[in-house]
Amino acid sequence: MPEPQMILDYASPRKRSKFRLASASLLESRWEGENLIIREWLAGQAGAILAIVLTFFMVGNLAREGFAEWRRLHTLSTAIIAGFFVTGWLVLVPAIIQQTWRETILRIGDGAMKLSMGGPFSRQHYLRQFDQVQAVRVISTQVREGAPLLAEIEILADNAPPIRLFTDHPEARLVLLSQEIDQAVRGVAPATVVPAPNASVDAWRKLRDEDLPH
């Protein structure tokens, strides 16, 4: 049986799309009662905005000159070339905006993990009930002498493709985040219980069954 297609995070530091311009990946978590909300988004789009504006004027000038050449000489070659560049720009810019303004939102609570991923023009949504989830674990993505330790969070669930999130963020940050996920799954607000430093994320189902009333 073929491996299920992984669900990958395109707002992480790892640049998975050629249409995404240079941008920093930011990560934060916050609590709303016993619900944990983790948000990852791309920042620093000023360079992308500048590039879009500059190419707009360049392509606009090319289109104006092509139209003027067609009116003067009644030849289509320049107009066709200008139209080709205008069409390419109209196709490329939305793709760049979609990829460079991406964000990932993971909400954990009320018995489910709800994941939303995408950009301004389209988003994908996934739902994993707690009783579906087999494991939530931190996986190292870079272990090299002299280099920072990087990792990602993987969510495995029954009859569903694996989800890989927050790829190439610092491992220490994701370990703390995994502890918050463990708390949210157990329905324990952070003001009530602080997770043990060596708590195993893979054992969250066992901890949940012990803590929740039957």
SSE diagram, text form:
Blueprint: E1 7-8, E2 24-32, E3 35-43, H1 46-73, H2 76-100, E4 103-109, E5 112-118, E6 123-129, E7 133-142, E8 150-157, E9 163-170, H3 171-186, H4 204-211
Parallel strand pairs: 1-9
Antiparallel strand pairs: 2-3, 3-4, 4-5, 5-6, 7-8, 8-9
Helix pairs in contact: 1-2, 3-4
Notable features of this structure?
214 residues, alpha+beta, five-stranded antiparallel sheet, 9 strands, 36% helix, disordered C terminus
Write structural notes for this entry.
With 214 residues, the protein is an alpha+beta fold. It folds into 2 domains: 145 residues; 54 residues. It contains 4 helices and 9 strands; from the N terminus they run E-E-E-H-H-E-E-E-E-E-E-H-H. The strands form 2 sheets. Strands 2-3-4-5-6 form a 5-stranded antiparallel beta sheet. Strands 1-9-8-7 form a 4-stranded mixed beta sheet, covered by helices on one side. Strand 7 and strand 8 form a beta hairpin. It is elongated, with a radius of gyration of 23 Å. The two termini are 37 Å apart. The relative contact order is 0.16.
Structure described in brief:
The protein is built from four helices and nine strands.
Shape: elongated
Secondary structural class: alpha+beta
Round the Cα radius of gyration to an integer and report it: 23 Å
The count of DSSP E runs of length 2 or more, i.e. the number of strands, is 9
